[in-house]
Amino acid sequence: MGNKDIISKSVLGHLAADIANLLLGLGVEMDNVELLDTEQQRVEQRRADLVARMRRQADGQDFILHIEIQNQNDSSMPLRMLRYFTDIQLAHPGYSIHQHLIYIGRDRLTMPDHFNAPTLAYHYPILDMHNVDCSVLLEQDTPDALVLAILCDFKGKPTQDMVNYIVLRLRELMGEDERGFRNYFEMLETLAENRDLQPNIKEAEQMLTQVDVTKFASYSWGMRDGIEKGIEKGIEKGIEKGIEQGIERGRKEGEFKKAQEVARSLLQLGVIPEADIARIAGLSLEEVQKLRVQH
Known about the structure:
Trna Endonuclease, Chain: A, domain 1, 5-stranded mixed beta sheet, 11 helices, Transposase
């Protein structure tokens, strides 16, 4: 799951709990998660993707959760999972181990979920993210759900638009909590690496630096048009006053054009309610509805 050495254990522990609760429905306590070191040495170095000791809310019982994220089919996966199981069990005797494979590959899932031998029957569940409705996670509108939505199949919707929305909404939800935002963004980067979405995440991060509307081309166009109109009007009513009016008009036109661009991009996703789009873009619901008709 990417380079976990640069990700804090607290962030990865939070991520493990989110996956357990939002994707696997295990009902664990968010503040009772301990990330475990699983690196073992035999002939080669192996490391399970994510292993953490957790506590169920229902009965207070501790258990170990092993999450493996796989982006391609691998016929040897059952044996790999079995080796992870034995390594983890030997390192932590007495604990019940829950293993889950999360499949995020583009191809149809064909990997087996079991291994049988004359004296052994081994099985683990596989969650195919193609079967997870991304809109359900987005509609929860929480930082945790937004981060996990990066693993979903976007169902043909533009990848960059989806990533941009996740990052933009995450930034908005975290407000002035910069440390919290960076923690969630680290989780997002870690998961995105499993889908080879690092370039999309980087582009979305750059987009955040351009939230100031004065940096968008559409704003510049609106400003230029407004100044030109203001100067023309200023010839009749006074150059100085006309330029001031033109600058103000240009600012408003630039902001409005940018808001329309944001709204159009969110409408194209097809999963965000119009009311939320209006709030995010800073437009009225009626203006968003007009854009949908035009689109």
